[in-house]
Amino acid sequence: MCVGDLVKKLNLPQPKVSMMLKELRxxxxxxxxxxxxxxxxxxxxxxLNNYLIDIKKMLSDFETNSLNExxxxxxxxxxx
Length: 80
Description:
By secondary structure, the protein is an alpha+beta fold. It contains three helices and two strands; from the N terminus they run H-H-E-E-H. This is HTH arsR-type domain-containing protein.
């Protein structure tokens, strides 16, 4: 997909879309292919999947830690 297509779909100004694409490129989440004067962007699914795995693990760890904290607070509350 080219920048112009993204601008239309996202209803955002072109400079904003270009800036966001640069950030995504820096994170290796999108790749770019130049054809003439146009650049076509695509999602790097492997990198995206790695990020999603990391996020799921962090959320799971957070939920476990939060649940443990609630249990500890409950026990303290019940013992008082």
